[in-house]
Amino acid sequence: LRCNDPPLDAELSELQFFRVQSPEILSELDKEMARAPDMLDHFIRVRERVESHLRDIEVVVHPIRRVPTEILHEVFLHCRQRIWLRARVELLDGYDSMHPGHPPWTLSRVCGRWRTISLSFPRLW
Q: Mean pLDDT, to the nearest integer, of 30-41?
């Protein structure tokens, strides 16, 4: 096919066979190509579900979920202490644990576990 020489007799029968079969092959390819957008949409939806599931797994297995309550108590106290010190340095009215922008309120809005811990930790208030 890539030269100007006439095909050999053996090649000619093969070329004729392909010539006869080509329209059917092209028709089948056209049908498959027509399905391609639907298949792509399906694969995109499946990929989105897998990505969503992976994000959920990453949240569940995150190391912060395994931090012991006693360590979180210390972290929470540190957060409260920093706010209190900043208020003193800036000569503000002082630390108000009831202010919604200060710990423990901010800490209690992170997740259910942190809310339970912060609300049940009297030293934080």
A: 96
